[in-house]
Amino acid sequence: MPKLSRETLTKAAVESAKPQARVYSLRDAKVVGLVLRVQPTGRKAWAVAYGRGQATTIGDFPVMTLEGARITAQRLLAEIAEHGAPLRAQRKAETFGEFIRDQYGPHVEATAKQGKATVAAIKSVFGGWYDKPLTAITLADWDALKAERLRSGTQPATVNRDLDRIKAALQQALNWSLMDANPLAKVKRIKRGIEARVRYLSKPEEKRLRTALEAREKRRRKSRESGEAWRAARGKDSLGAFQGYTDHLMPMTLLAINTGLRRGELTQLRWADIDLKGKRLTVRAGYAKSGKARHIPLNTEALATLKACRKQHNGDGPLFGVAAVTKSWRNLMTAAKLDDFRFHDLRHTFASKLVMAGVDLNTVRELLGHGDITMTLRYAHLAPEHKAAAVELLVL
């Protein structure tokens, strides 16, 4: 019999639960019926126990957090109290669309930080499957969709995210006993070699970018001054001069080029993540792509940028309050005469400049938040002089 323990579970207790030779369970005293099963492999799965020896898996930790597991378990236990069993266990014949709309969608929105975005992405990419019976989805369906996505120019990284989302959804259907097997369980992500695209700014290009940013700021300030004169002439209230930057574009660009943060990490930064005295910022695990927090030291320009931003904020909430910079970035690229340069390439510029300055790849990996060194190796070719110095150490 598995070992059982009863306690009011905490995040620390769940994270510290170590695998043993046999599966064991931790039972939550706060939501009676919620169980964390720890497998010898290290897998930690949430389940809801009910009736005599009956249980249903509801998700894996850490994908499903303790808070999310409690919310899901309470909903499931309410179903069991009213109907004698989970409703999902009673409904096996349904379409993929009904599964997403009625079950998986509410579940992932309640338990995942980007739940709504995940559901929207599934509908956008897999909408053609919505009328298909859930149990009729096959590997061939995925292969056909993947091929079509790649033919249309969708990047492999985006297709990999598509795969991650659909595998997670189908795995949850399996956990809920709505399917006998996950047809995509063994499908692997598209491998991206270290030769993957690395576009970074040359010194002349970076100079043009900075010049375009300064010119844009100057135009916007001049426009504000003109508007103030117009308002004054008509007796309207003054908007006041700009404090710090005129909008989000210049500070986001400067921070990206000096910290290597992804656009999504920048847009979710909050003032609570910034330590101006300690000269560092924290990328929280909740919005880091890797799911792990990391701390980035602030160089002189990054620190000055944040201090300028601070002039227009009260120190609470998000730094920028925007989700995208698509239009303003496109106009900036035109003004700077930069071709084939995305906002994400500022991250490549950050990494490339570090490597060319002699910073070791593992330090670059830590600053970028890469899970392993493989992704960081794409920058290795930028330091050929270090390879040459290494082989010179060989003696006859």
Automatic annotation (TrEMBL):
The keyword ATP-binding does not apply. It holds the Pfam family Phage_integrase. The lineage of its organism: Bacteria, Pseudomonadati, Pseudomonadota, Gammaproteobacteria, Lysobacterales. This is Integrase. Residues 217-392 form the Tyr recombinase domain. Keywords: DNA integration, DNA recombination, DNA-binding. The keyword DNA-binding applies. SUPFAM superfamilies: DNA breaking-rejoining enzymes (SSF56349). Belongs to the 'phage' integrase family. InterPro entries: DNA_brk_join_enz (IPR011010), Integrase-like_cat_sf (IPR013762), Integrase_catalytic (IPR002104), Integrase_DNA-bd_sf (IPR038488), Integrase_DNA_bind_dom (IPR025166), Integrase_recombinase_N (IPR010998), Phage_Integrase (IPR050808).
